[in-house]
Design brief:
Blueprint lengths: L3 E4 L5 H8 L5 H8 L9 E4 L12 H15 L14 H9 L5 H5 L8 H11 L3
Antiparallel strand pairs: 1-2
Bound molecules: coenzyme A.
């Protein structure tokens, strides 16, 4: 195995911010993940330069297994994630590792409030 999986450090936030494709800057990630009661935890795979390739060297499986291990130690009973419909390589990968597709088996929809709809909900709270 030519990589090491370890808990993320504050210094990793710039790279994490680039990878996660949501509007969270490295400064916000540093604040939210490395405070007294962090909102999230993160693992990173450290790969020596000479072993870097796009995929297929066990890193995806390594990260998934490590997340499962961390969860089990905290007595979690499920590992749930979101994957886009078109991302068949990832969907096939999760299926090959034993995941069920809840959209297929149970018809779940992903529901989100953000921007104005989230503001509206929060503002309504003051009137309750
Ligand atoms: C899908 C992805 C996570 C797989 O990670 P990877 O590092 O390429 O895969 P690994 O080398 O860890 O594969 C390990 C195992 O999974 C299997 N596997 C990998 N890709 C697979 C696929 N598309 N379908 C079925 N099995 C797959 C391998 O055959 C191997 O099997 P083994 O455990 O029996 O040896 C990776 O290709 C990826 O990061 N894709 C782009 C980013 C992305 O979309 N991530 C998911 C967002 S939801």
């Amino acid at each position: 195995m030519h990589f090491k999986i370890r808990p993320a450090k504050k210094e990793d936030c710039k790279e994490i911010s680039r990878l996660i494709m949501v509007s969270r800057s490295n400064v916000e990630l540093e604040r939210d993940g490395f405070c007294e009661n962090p909102f999230f935890q993160c693992l990173v795979a450290e790969v020596p330069e000479e072993h870097k390739s796009k995929e297929g060297n066990g890193i995806g499986k390594g990260l998934l297994c490590k997340v499962a291990e961390v969860g089990k130690k905290k007595e979690c009973v499920r590992l749930q994630l979101s994957v886009l419909d078109w991302n068949t390589p990832s969907r096939d990968f999760y299926a090959a590792k034993g995941a069920q597709d809840l959209t297929v088996s149970e018809g779940w929809h992903a529901i989100r409030f953000d921007g104005q709809s989230l503001d509206n909900l929060a503002n309504e709270a003051a009137k309750i």
